[in-house]
Amino acid sequence: MAKRHGNLFERICEPENLYLAYRKARLGKSVMANVQRFERDVAGNLEAIRQSLVDKSFTTARYHSKMIHVPKTREIYILPLDGDKVKLDEVVNREILITGHSIKRSRYDKNTSGKCLTIQFEVGGRRQVLFTGSDVLIEQFEKYGDQIPFAATIKKIDRFYTLS
Fold first, then answer.
1. In three state form, how does the secondary structure of 118-129 look?
2. What ranges do the domains of the chain cover?
């Protein structure tokens, strides 16, 4: 049976504690688009979180985990990428702000790598996501994905896509 600590839930829901948690969570992440979006109305967003905790409607998205080895080996938990789904050809030759990505095994065998790249980005203030099996893009994200966020343009050269 779980041990109860007096009034712990009430203390968690106090605006000062939620603000402290927000400040700790954003450390080192102030350049991330989702943090910047949250900061446009910190007080309103924290109040919405507090209210959802109080009325017991708060939920998080389903996490997935992966092992990282720098600077030490540990398991980290990652929220899924989200945004309006668009086709790759809809963003070709447009500058986008890339805010996240993931590479997983593809369900299709059209590309030689057998991988699927999900790119989360912002354009015109809207968060969007696209899926591609482009081997060139996958290779570029494997090489430069740790530099996110960054601005880029996806170009189509013959039948291949590339970042520029």
1. EEEEEECCEEEE
2. 8-59, 84-163
Please list, in sequence order, all residues whose beta carbon lies within 8 angstroms of the beta carbon of residue 6, skipping any fewer than 6 positions away. none
Tens of pLDDT, residues 137-158: 999 999 988 888 889 999 999 9
Task: Provide the whole-model pTM.
Answer: 0.56
Best CA proximity match to 162, nearest among 140, 144, 147: 140
CA distance 111 to 157: 17
Tokens for 100, please give them: 């996240």
Under a CB-based contact definition with an 8 Å cutoff, are residues 46 and 22 in contact? yes
DSSP 88: G
Residue with tokens 């430069």: 144
Closest CA to 123 of 91, 145, 81: 91
Q: What is the DSSP letter of 30?
A: T
